[in-house]
């Protein structure tokens, strides 16, 4: 099979010095790519530039991404090609930065001009958080005949809620499967589809199941 695996975090710049990102290390996606490559599949690994996992990368092609827009462009560039499966495990930033505001002499907040480095000596700054477009919502349009597996990391709640969130993603984005994990799911992984769900105690057994899809 010809596979694409995304892994690691995106980031969104506040200015040329500071950025908003998340704690994803890129380990899970990288190890999935390694597993698929060791089984003889052709794998392209798209991994966040700021991923901290230092393990080996055995995919035949490895490309790094930075922002959500950059990952979107790299995935879209594969549309129209013969891709059998997309495993979208990257932790895409939920928010980017919008307008920056600071108080004037009257105490009213007014928008500031963009700066290469926002001065910290200016107190009372407020920044607008803007939701980033969901990449997974466009994968079916770019890859109409491809098996698409998404990920749903849930931090709050319980396993039942995490599984419902995974099903909601499948229905909203027309994906085939979703892997549920995170503190809400608990130990292990849930592989969810519209037909049901299976639990896997560790990454190795999950990877074997994903390959069989």
Describe the secondary-structure layout.
Layout: E1 2-7, E2 12-13, E3 19-20, H1 27-38, E4 42-48, E5 61-65, H2 68-76, E6 85-88, E7 95-103, E8 109-111, E9 126-131, H3 136-142, E10 147-153, H4 159-173, E11 177-181, E12 189-193, E13 196-200, H5 203-212
Helix pairs in contact: 1-5
Portion in beta strands:
25-35%
Number of domains: 2
- Kindly identify the CATH topology of the largest domain: Rossmann fold
Number of strands: 13
The backbone outline, from C-alpha atoms, is globular
According to CATH, the homologous superfamily of the largest domain is: CoaB-like
Radius of gyration: 19 Å
The amount of helix comes to: 10-25%
| CATH class division of the largest domain | Alpha Beta
CATH architecture of the largest domain: 3-Layer(aba) Sandwich
Describe, in plain words, how this protein is organized in 3D.
The protein has two domains: 2-94 and 132-212, CoaB-like (Rossmann fold); 96-129, no CATH class. Helices cover 25% and strands 31% of the residues. The protein has helices at residues 27-38, 68-76, 136-142, 159-173, 203-212, and strands at 2-7, 12-13, 19-20, 42-48, 61-65, 85-88, 95-103, 109-111, 126-131, 147-153, 177-181, 189-193, 196-200. An eight-stranded mixed beta sheet has the order 5-4-1-6-10-11-12-13, with helices on both faces. A three-stranded antiparallel beta sheet has the order 8-7-9, with no helix packed on it. A two-stranded antiparallel sheet has the order 2-3. α1 (27-38) packs across α5.
